[in-house]
Write a structure and sequence with these properties.
Helix 2 packs parallel to helix 4. The longest helix has 37 residues. The protein has a domain of 189 residues. The chain has a three-stranded parallel β-sheet with strand order 3-4-5. 52% of the residues lie in helices and 6% in strands. It is mainly alpha-helical. Helix 16 links the parallel strand 4 and strand 5.
Length: 480
């Protein structure tokens, strides 16, 4: 059982009024209008069209394209957030995934900035680049057209297009999943690259000769390629922060930039040592995942468990205060709101106002079935209560035999005060659901929520839980 050491689990002494950095960042975020960002689309198209060979395996080509984008991605610092890295080149941006769902906005390039529901600012220059340079290349190469050709325009696609233009959510490919951020924080990306290199060598040493072996070899080589792109992006962030610090006259801002430069020079390449390093490493990796995958429900998972070791060590060693921990968690919450979906107006009719739904899960039990609620659980509840943001989608697990009533009541208070979150999950039922699907008990106990309400054993599978949006009543209606 993990004891909570907070004197007040409600953390009432910390308010939005006395957390200056969070208040300012929140106010600025709420005033910022969303813009379309074509940075990813530009660089991935440039690489795949002009620099790659169609003879290369797709894993290799795509890894190189993502690495090329990350290596060229602008290292931007828009505000005084304590974390380095941005999802897009805009303060609040909608990235274009032209090979996945991005092509659906092609008919709306002239109207997307002025549409009635959730308009997205798109500059004339960027609209022209999409219209005349990027989208024409992808007209027959995007995932929907690839599927149409491969399966001879299947009934499912005709049905999707009969209803609305956008409803084929599987075009987002993997998307909805929980990355294994615990591994990144513990090993560092350099450690993961070394692991992939070792696996590659093992395959070569045994003289691969099967299709499965060749596919595995391509995968491990692709892992090494794309991870180098992540490291280059982090290095660029470190260099840019140092450059900005040299000319910054404000003392606190200069110190923050120098600290971010120091942190990005270490993580995510190496294992995180401190709470701030761990949070920034996790955020840079979230940005990197969005470089590959559409920004829909890439969910960070059980952050009160993933980050607890670093929090506890820093608190015990006297190098972190509760206020600083709240500020860092708040900065992560705000960073998770730096991007939004790029969808056509038809989709806004169906999902208007929906965010990117990166789900964070707190509470519940650990792999041994014991109470997992800790200080960070309550800190994340408090930050959510104070900021009242669109994202992350917070989910609170509750095991009525293991978790305390005071934890249950605190979750209920936050729901009342935010009028929205966290979602409340019955641990006993959810764990049994995963066990019934063949998940090991200790892995089922370590479940996290993806996106809206989907369950997954955190960091252990590609769940792609949005692979179908199925309305049984509509099926009957169409049949009639």
């Amino acid at each position: 059982m993990r004891a909570t050491t907070l004197k007040d689990i409600r953390l009432r002494e910390y308010t939005i009024e006395n957390l200056d950095i969070l208040r300012t960042l929140r106010e600025n975020l709420l005033k910022t209008r969303p813009e379309v960002c074509i940075e990813r689309s530009r660089y991935t198209t440039r690489y795949l069209r002009d620099m790659s060979s169609p003879d290369e395996h797709m894993e290799t080509r795509y890894a190189k394209a993502v690495a090329y984008f990350l290596s060229n991605k602008k290292p931007l610092f828009f505000d005084d957030n304590l974390l380095a890295g941005t999802t897009t080149s805009k303060p609040f941006g909608a990235p274009v995934y032209q090979e996945l769902t991005g092509m659906t906005i092609w008919p709306e390039l002239d109207t997307i900035s002025t549409r009635e529901k959730n308009p997205l600012i798109l500059s004339k220059e960027d609209a022209e680049e999409l219209n005349f340079d990027i989208f024409p290349y992808w007209m027959e190469r995007n995932i929907l057209e690839y599927t149409r050709k491969k399966f001879n325009n299947p009934d499912c696609m005709r049905l999707f297009e009969r209803i609305v233009f956008f409803l084929a959510s599987k075009a987002g490919t993997i998307s909805h999943t929980v990355p294994d951020y615990k591994k990144v924080l513990g090993k560092g990306i350099a450690g993961i690259v070394e692991e992939a290199r070792t696996r590659e060598k093992e395959l070569k040493d045994r003289r691969i000769n099967t299709a499965e072996d060749r596919h595995s070899l391509e995968f491990y080589q692709a892992v090494q390629t794309v991870m180098k792109g992540v490291l280059e992006y982090a290095a660029n962030l470190s260099k840019k922060a140092a450059e900005l610090a040299r000319v910054e006259k404000n003392h606190s801002r200069r110190e923050n930039l120098l600290k971010m430069s120091e942190i990005c020079a270490r993580v995510p390449a190496k294992p995180a040592r401190t709470f701030r390093e761990a949070i920034n490493s996790l955020w840079i990796c979230q940005v990197a995942v969005h470089a590959e995958n559409i920004n829909m429900a890439i969910s960070p998972g059980r952050l009160d468990q993933v980050l607890y070791k670093y929090y506890r060590d820093d608190i015990d060693n006297g190098i972190l205060t509760i206020k600083e921990a709240i500020e860092l968690v708040g900065c992560l919450w705000l960073k998770l709101n730096d991007n939004t979906n790029l969808v056509p107006e038809t989709s806004e009719e169906l999902f208007g106002g929906a965010g990117t739904v990166p789900a964070v899960t707190v509470g519940g039990v650990d792999k041994d079935g014991e109470d997992a609620v800790n200080d960070l659980t309550y800190i994340m509840l408090r930050v959510t209560e104070l900021l009242k943001l669109r994202d992350p989608s917070l989910n609170a697990r509750y095991h009525y035999e293991k978790n305390t009533e005071e934890y249950r009541d605190r979750v209920a208070e936050v729901i009342v005060n935010t009028k929205a979150v966290p979602a409340f999950h019955n641990d006993m039922v959810d764990i049994k659901v995963l066990e019934n699907q063949g998940t090991l008990t200790e892995h089922a106990r370590d479940y996290a929520v993806i996106g809206c309400v989907e369950l997954a054993s955190a960091g252990r599978s590609y769940d792609a839980s949005s692979s179908i949006i199925f309305n049984l009543v509509s099926t009957l209606e169409l049949a009639l």
